[in-house]
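Deliverable D2.4 — example input (structure tokens):
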């Protein structure tokens, strides 16, 4: 495959940006080679600067549930831009999108738009602390909540431990406000809550999808809700990935569990930068200008992003959309899984809705420590083989894949054939 133009652009980019990228996840560090510079996307396909065509299962890391260059979203963006790109004032577009989202989601009453998932989580944490008057938060190893200082921590030794920063530049005092536990252990959660007087909230990805797809049981998530209610601790669902992906009401609706605060991003921007946090009227009344918890953003509720988000959400709300997405994703994965089982390959494909992951093990993976780092060597081979055959996945074995509405059964059948062919090389 000719990658000359991407290689040239990457060489140039390294003069301007750290590592040549504007986000580390875009680098090909874990799979080797040069990042592809994409110049065009349409439907289920992307094309790079060397005119190589790929079936895309990255989908901009999740937002593009309707595929690339969706006509409804594109036209909404163009119409909005004709009237300007930003005003720093309220617009009718915020009202329209907010109304659609809230009226079709039983789990939220008010929301605040921001510009990214990280900003949404940062604001939700501040709201939890401001409402409760407490400082500490509990997160789980393997759940990623954006590059918020207090959440870039991992579990240390021991059952109940203070977090250890995973990034330089974060003061130890910040990390000490964050407690970290492994997933899938309710006893550990209750023990920690009982021993911690100053716990404001528990935050979790109800569908952990940033460090593999660590699917949790409904009983575990219900147990977290019960414990938070029992001990008067707020429960935050980080639904930046799962929100509007596993259903219009996200994981809250999928599992029928009421969180206290929910964070969203990705899909509600229709491909434009966006985030949001939402809760009950009571909790959201604490946010400025109504309450004392300050949060602001020049581009929050940007009219172009709001228009794109509305155009996307209006299509997602159509009857049967999510059932169809889940069915075709399952059909696609079963084809690959059946082939690999018949061949005796040690690989499984956890799925939920239109999200899938490739796990090089036969074990059910529910916690981060169950992932064998050595298995990433197999993903490196798979990623390279798939690129050569015209399939683009995110360049890390810890990342999940996404199916979009633009992936037809014919495209998915072709993708399954290519996946199986590539697996033969991985397991030579």
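Example output (designed residues):
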């Amino acid at each position: 495959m000719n990658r000359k133009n991407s290689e040239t652009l990457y060489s140039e980019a390294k003069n301007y940006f750290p590592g040549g990228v504007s986000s580390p996840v875009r680098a090909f560090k874990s799979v080797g080679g040069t990042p592809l510079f994409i110049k065009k996307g349409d439907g289920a396909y992307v094309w790079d600067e060397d005119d190589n065509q790929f079936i895309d299962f990255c989908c901009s890391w999740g937002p593009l549930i309707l595929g690339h260059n969706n006509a409804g979203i594109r036209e909404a963006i163009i119409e909005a831009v004709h009237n300007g790109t930003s005003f720093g004032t309220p617009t009718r577009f915020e009202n329209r999108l907010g109304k659609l989202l809230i009226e079709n989601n039983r789990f939220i009453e008010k929301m605040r738009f921001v510009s990214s998932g990280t900003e949404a989580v940062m604001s939700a944490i501040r709201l939890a602390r401001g409402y409760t008057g407490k400082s500490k938060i509990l997160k789980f190893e393997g759940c990623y909540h954006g590059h918020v200082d207090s959440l870039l921590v991992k579990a240390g030794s021991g059952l109940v431990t203070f977090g250890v920063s995973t990034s330089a530049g974060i003061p130890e005092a910040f990390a000490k406000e964050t407690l970290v536990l492994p997933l899938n252990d309710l006893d550990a959660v209750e023990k920690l809550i009982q021993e911690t007087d100053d716990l404001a909230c528990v935050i979790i990805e109800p569908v952990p999808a940033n460090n593999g797809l660590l699917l949790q049981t409904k009983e575990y998530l219900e147990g977290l809700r019960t414990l938070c209610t029992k001990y008067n601790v707020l429960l935050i669902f980080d639904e930046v990935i799962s929100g509007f992906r596993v259903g219009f009401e996200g994981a809250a609706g999928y599992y029928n569990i009421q969180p206290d605060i929910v964070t969203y991003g990705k899909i509600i921007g229709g491909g434009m930068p966006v985030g949001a946090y939402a809760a009950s009227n009571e909790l959201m009344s604490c946010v400025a200008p109504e309450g004392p918890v300050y949060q602001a953003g020049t581009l929050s509720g940007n009219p172009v992003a709001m228009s794109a988000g509305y155009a996307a959400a209006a299509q997602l709300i159509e009857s049967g959309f999510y059932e169809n997405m889940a069915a075709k994703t399952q059909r696609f994965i079963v084809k690959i899984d059946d082939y690999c089982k018949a061949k005796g390959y040690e690989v499984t494909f956890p799925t939920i809705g239109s999200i899938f992951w490739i796990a090089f093990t036969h074990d059910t993976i529910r916690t981060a420590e169950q992932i064998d780092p050595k298995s990433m060597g197999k993903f490196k081979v798979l990623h390279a083989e798939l690129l050569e055959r015209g399939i683009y996945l995110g360049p890390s074995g810890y990342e999940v894949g996404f199916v979009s509405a633009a992936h037809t059964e014919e495209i998915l059948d072709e993708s399954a054939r290519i996946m199986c062919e590539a697996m033969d090389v991985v397991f030579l």
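Confidence is low (pLDDT under 50) at residues 155-164.
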